[in-house]
Amino acid sequence: MLDFIDQGILIGVVATGIRLATPYLLAALGEMLSQRAGVFNLGLEGIMLMGAFAGFYLTFVSQSPMLGLLAAILVGALMGLLMAFVSVTLQAEQGISGIGLSMLGWGLSGLFFRLYVDGIQTIAGLKPWKLPFLSEIPLLGMMFFNHNVIVYFAFLLVPLFWFVLFRTTWGLSVRAVGMTPQAVDTLGVSVTGIRYQCLIIGGMMAGLAGATLTVANTHMFADNITAGRGFIAIALVYFGRWSPWGILAGSLLFSMADSFQLWVQVLGINFPYELAVMLPYMVTIIALMVSYGRVWPPAALGKPYERGVRG
Amino acid sequence: MRGRTIIVLMMALLGALLIGAVFILLAKSDPIRAYQVMLTGPFSSSFGITEVLVRTTPLLLTGLGIIISFRSGVLNIGGEGQILVGAIASAGIALTFPSLPMLILFPLVLLSGAIAGGIWGGIAGVLKAKLNVNEILSTVMLNQIAAQLYLLLIRGILIDPQEVTYGTGVPQTALVPQAVWMTRLIPGARFNTGFIMALVLAGLVYYLLMHTTVGYRLRAVGAGPAAARYAGINVPFYMSLSMVLAGALAGLAGTVEVLGVHHRALEDISSGYGFSAIVAALFGRLHPIGIIPASILFGALILGADMMQRAVSIPAAIVLVIQGFVILFVVASDYFIRRPELLNRWRSRWFRRSEEVS
Questions:
Q1: How much of chain B exceeds pLDDT 90, in percent?
Q2: Does residue A297 sit within a domain?
Q3: Assuming Cys at both sites, which of B42, B82, B95, B181 could form a disulfide with B117, CB separation 3.0 to 4.6 Å?
Q4: How far is CA B136 from CA A82, B156, B298, in A?
């Protein structure tokens, strides 16, 4: 059928791409929720780093990846709470507080790593979980149904997020808070409350996204292991036009490019390593450029809400 | 107003240091002894002071650029990448034309650093001005691209031929010709004329921003792009210009690291100056003169953290944690600076409570 390309390589590229999409997907869906509620959480990178470390460390100590993931979600929630306090309650400039949160996460994860682990340690991590029957399908089974549990979870979240955002009262409130907070406030829905909820959920997702990198993908932690993925996830929210399906498409586009790049290296095709590493960042800039003109962000995005002041 | 601002800033720093102390305790170390090393160590010898100023210089240069861009409403966090392209361009030009007379080569090398940085910053500026590309995201991506480009060059075509001959393969360029080295001001120390250049540029940036039409227009674009557009200001042009200037200043910081400190481009040449400069700029309340003491302060903190790492083995990464909290506290404290009545209201509430208790 596919005799011009090795079937094994094709399966490898697609399966790796699906796996690599998970951190982007989780972080970007969470960021989408925050932005839909009108808060631009630029601290995503820092939250992911903290989640990456918490997940790694708890797994390292307890030998239980599930405990690691739980810790990452908890740490993410705390970081989201901090961002909410600074940007919602204290109405700080969201871009700058996000930079602060990113530096904080970068510093703290590096500090804890040196204090409590130090040196290269590997953990057992998550094992792939072959879905019964589905993984038996030739070709497709190995590509889509032979992954660790977070991968399935992340992809299931896409329709779930769509449903919550567009088919529930809470989702309507979230979208309204991001558009016209005054109107929502008049109806007795707490703008502050909704924004806190969204930032905390977004933080939990970013924490889990970070843990995916350490617990599921690499089985180790290194300083600044996210290498800008938090910011790429934010770019994906733009690229996906604040829609779960758009974000799914964007995440897959990115992770497939990423996977292709990895496989080029694995197969020993002669291509400068540094240029290959550069690729996803260049693709991000191009993705942001082509989003031009199609971007209609939530109207109140980035604006702190203050009662009695016209927005 | 000014007095209160300084008090709020000091409280922000103190708060960050206090939280840092908690982490030192977590590391089972004595925070008082650790901070003693960190805060007094850099100033306990004249060599220490020169090393503080060596770290101040890139913070000040990059921070001046951050001020121009932030004041123009562009949140530029691309200092790190701009420093790297400035450094590699200067080293590259200096190594390509070693036989040019010093009077031509030196300005050429400075200019190449500034131009390379300016182009790198300008990309993000033009993308924001023309295509509405979020500058925070684009500058982060440009940082990552610059880091890879820098590595590619110092591992590849610009690698020191000696490293190849001896087979050691340390990724660094050869020493740049001695003619372009910046003069060291104190024998035996790395402190050099780059610091003087940075101070002069601080004065120039102050004049540009506060006393020229261009500066006024830049600040107008930052204060409100819509209003600036109605006033007939070419908003996309000034947005782009702010990023070109910011990149050029950061590029010069890279040039000074090459010409004044290391005399070659080597791995980890910037070690986070691009990010610390944001903290210094915010701490100096985005004022071109205010950033001078702020960058000395953070230069000292960075050196102090290194000393602390050696003395009481607290990882120097703690300085990043402290800087992160400083940003959060400074940006949050604006809330109280904007609303002095809040502090008074809280104060009176506390007083009332304490009266009830007594």
A1: 48
A2: no
A3: B82
A4: 21, 30, 23
User: How far apart are the CA of A233 and the nearest CA of chain B, in angstroms?
Assistant: 10
Give the CATH number of the domain where residue A212 resides: 1.10.3470.10
Give the whole-angstrom CA distance, residue B248 versus residue B269: 17
Rounded to the nearest 5°, which phi and psi values hold at A290? -75, -15
* ipTM score of complex: 0.86
Of residues A47 and B41, the one with the higher pLDDT is A47
Look at residue B353 in the predicted model and tell me its pLDDT. 55
To probe the interface with A, which of B38, B69, B74, B136 has the most A CB atoms within 10 Å?
Answer: B136
Residue A210, token pair as written in the block: 């970070």
Q: Does B141 touch chain A (CB under 8 A)?
A: yes
Shortest alpha-carbon distance between residue A95 and chain B (Å):
7
- With respect to residue A126, please indicate whether it lies within any of the assigned structural domains: no
Please write the tens of the pLDDT for every residue from A258-297. Answer: 887 777 777 777 777 788 888 888 888 998 888 766 667 7
Beta bridge partners of B266: B172
Shortest Cα–Cα distance, B101 to chain A (Å): 35
pLDDT digits (tens, 9 = 90+) for B169-223: 788 888 888 888 888 888 888 888 889 999 999 999 999 999 999 999 999 999 8
- Identify the residue among B80, B137, B312 best suited for mutation to test binding to A, counting A beta carbons within 10 A and taking the highest: B137
The verdict on a CB contact (< 8 Å) between A115 and B318 is: no
Residue of B30 and A245 predicted with greater confidence? A245
Number of structural domains, chain A?
1
Contact residues on chain B for A101, CB-CB shorter than 8 A = 324, 328
pTM of the model: 0.89
Average of per-residue pLDDT across B255-282: 90
Residues of A in contact with B151 (CB under 8 A): 274
As a whole number, the mean pLDDT across chain A is 86
Residue among B138, B141, B331 minimizing CB distance to A86? B331
Q: Which residues of B touch A281 (CB under 8 A)?
A: 141-142, 144-145
Residue at A232 is within a domain = yes
Q: Which amino acid is at A272?
A: P
| Domain ranges, residue A28 | 12-120+157-290
Structural contact between residues B151 and B84, judged by C-beta atoms closer than 8 angstroms: no
Predicted local distance difference test score (pLDDT) of residue B1: 47
Higher pLDDT, A79 or A189: A79
Report the residue of A99, A224, A301 to disrupt the B interface, i.e. the one with the largest count of B CBs within 10 Å.
A99
Q: Report whether B57 contacts B260 (CB < 8 A).
A: yes
Local confidence band at B358 (pLDDT 50, 70, 90 cut-offs): very low
Q: Which of B341, B278, B335 is nearest to A87 (CA)?
A: B335
3 state DSSP class of A269: coil
- CA distance linking residue A297 with residue A183, whole number of Å: 18
Asked if residue A306 belongs to a domain, the reply is: no
